[in-house]
């Protein structure tokens, strides 16, 4: 079985994450592209010709992708406000769908996408990249196997040093929903619940410091409406607590574009921490000891079965290729994809609650029922 993949949205995310994953997976091939930018579409047709049989079919409207009987699965890597319509059209056509985060502009849209895919019986995946980082996979093993004791506390910091110029569509609520909260912190909400279990309540806040009323080339534009700093504290159903903070305005945390990230689980017997800039190592410590760097065991360096060489490439980049491996594996093996649209929707419910909490200046109880 060869899984024939179409990509909707041929920008940097597809070039950086998804197409390299298709290239290394012998069970799939890229067959079609869709993007309203015709010049970029033609460029990608050439750039990505080696990822599938030539010539790649191209469309400027996602309806063409949904109507293409030669496509088994679709990767949606477009602006947030388009995710719902594109995904529903492809699901209705019987195509499996992997969609970038956030799934929608709010929990209601994301839950609708989940129910549509569930009811149609197609595979569905939310592109929560960082679940596939080797150190995060190993930390999950340490938590699930009880090696840290009872999980008591989770902490995440995600700091980026980005320019304070326009984000384009990303800085308007009707197109993006929110800023750092939906773009970056939502990843950490997802993997926190993967490690610690469901959240039951949160208290959060957001802020905006950069007006972003000038483009990179110096032209004036409408100012930003979204957050560039977000934070929350939360209580998990199992009794643990969590603390999250993220921002795109942390000067000095550029690190060749990877920024700074630290995610930590503290248990009754020990602690473990993951760093994006060093994802092939974890930092471990036991009661009475000192947190020390430890190599991630080889079996956690790649997704199970992935042909990706575990020690090749830039560590902070190459683990992202395993998203495609998981997506294709769920199709070939006829099993649920992890993380699915259900995980994406529940993470968005938490992010929505942060906005609600900020508005109310109060704790918000969560309802993660997807219907």
Descriptive notes:
With 371 residues, the protein is an alpha/beta fold. The protein has two domains: 127 residues, Rossmann fold (3-Layer(aba) Sandwich); 205 residues, Dihydrodipicolinate Reductase, domain 2, CATH 3.30.360.10. Helices cover 32% and strands 23% of the residues. The chain is built from eleven helices and 15 strands. It has a nine-stranded mixed β-sheet with strand order 14-13-12-11-7-10-9-8-15. It has a six-stranded parallel β-sheet with strand order 3-2-1-4-5-6, sandwiched between helices. Strand 2, helix 2 and strand 3 form a beta-alpha-beta unit. The model has no long low-confidence stretch (mean pLDDT 97).
Question: How would you sum up this structure in a few lines?
Answer:
The chain has 371 residues and is α/β, with parallel strands linked by helices. It is built from eleven helices and 15 strands. It is globular.
Write the layout of secondary structure elements.
Elements: E1 3-8, H1 12-24, E2 28-34, H2 38-47, E3 57-59, H3 62-66, E4 73-76, H4 83-92, E5 96-99, H5 107-120, E6 124-126, H6 134-144, E7 151-159, H7 173-176, H8 180-196, E8 199-207, E9 229-236, E10 241-247, E11 260-267, E12 270-275, E13 281-286, E14 292-295, H9 315-318, H10 322-332, H11 341-360, E15 364-365
Parallel strand pairs: 1-2, 1-4, 2-3, 4-5, 5-6, 7-10
Antiparallel strand pairs: 7-11, 8-9, 8-15, 9-10, 11-12, 12-13, 13-14
Helix pairs in contact: 1-10, 4-5, 5-11, 6-8, 8-11
């Amino acid at each position: 079985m060869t899984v024939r993949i179409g990509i909707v949205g041929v920008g940097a995310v597809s070039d950086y994450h998804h197409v390299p994953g298709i290239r290394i997976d012998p069970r799939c091939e890229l067959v079609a592209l869709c993007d309203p930018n015709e010049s970029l579409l033609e460029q990608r047709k050439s750039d990505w010709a080696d990822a599938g049989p030539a010539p790649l079919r191209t469309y400027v409207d996602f309806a063409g992708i949904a109507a293409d009987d030669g496509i088994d699965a679709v990767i949606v890597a477009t602006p947030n406000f388009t995710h719902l319509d594109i995904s529903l059209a492809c699901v209705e056509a019987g195509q499996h769908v992997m969609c970038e985060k956030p799934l929608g502009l709010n929990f209601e849209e994301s839950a609708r996408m989940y129910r549509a895919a569930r009811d149609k019986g197609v595979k569905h995946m939310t592109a929560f990249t960082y679940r596939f980082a080797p150190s995060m996979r190993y930390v999950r093993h340490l938590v699930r196997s009880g090696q840290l004791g009872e999980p008591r506390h989770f902490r995440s910091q995600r700091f980026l040093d980005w320019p304070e110029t326009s984000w384009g569509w990303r800085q308007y609520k009707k197109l993006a929903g929110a800023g750092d909260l939906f773009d970056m912190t939502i990843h950490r909400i997802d993997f926190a619940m993967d490690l610690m279990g469901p959240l039951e309540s949160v208290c959060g806040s957001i802020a905006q410091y950069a007006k972003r009323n000038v483009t990179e080339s110096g032209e004036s534009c409408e100012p930003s409406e979204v957050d560039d700093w977000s934070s929350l504290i939360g209580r998990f159903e199992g009794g643990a607590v969590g603390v999250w903070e993220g921002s795109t305005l942390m000067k000095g945390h550029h690190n060749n574009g990877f920024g700074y990230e630290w995610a930590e689980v503290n248990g009754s017997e020990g602690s473990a921490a993951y760093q994006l800039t060093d994802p092939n190592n974890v930092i471990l410590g036991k009661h009475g000891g000192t947190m020390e760097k430890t190599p991630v065991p080889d079996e956690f360096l790649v997704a199970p079965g992935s042909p990706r060489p575990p020690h090749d490439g830039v560590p902070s980049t190459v683990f992202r290729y395993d998203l495609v491996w998981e997506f294709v594996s769920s199709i070939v093996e006829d099993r649920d994809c992890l993380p699915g649209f259900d995980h994406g929707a529940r993470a968005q419910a938490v992010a929505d609650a942060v906005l609600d909490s900020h508005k109310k200046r109060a704790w918000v109880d969560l309802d993660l029922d997807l219907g």
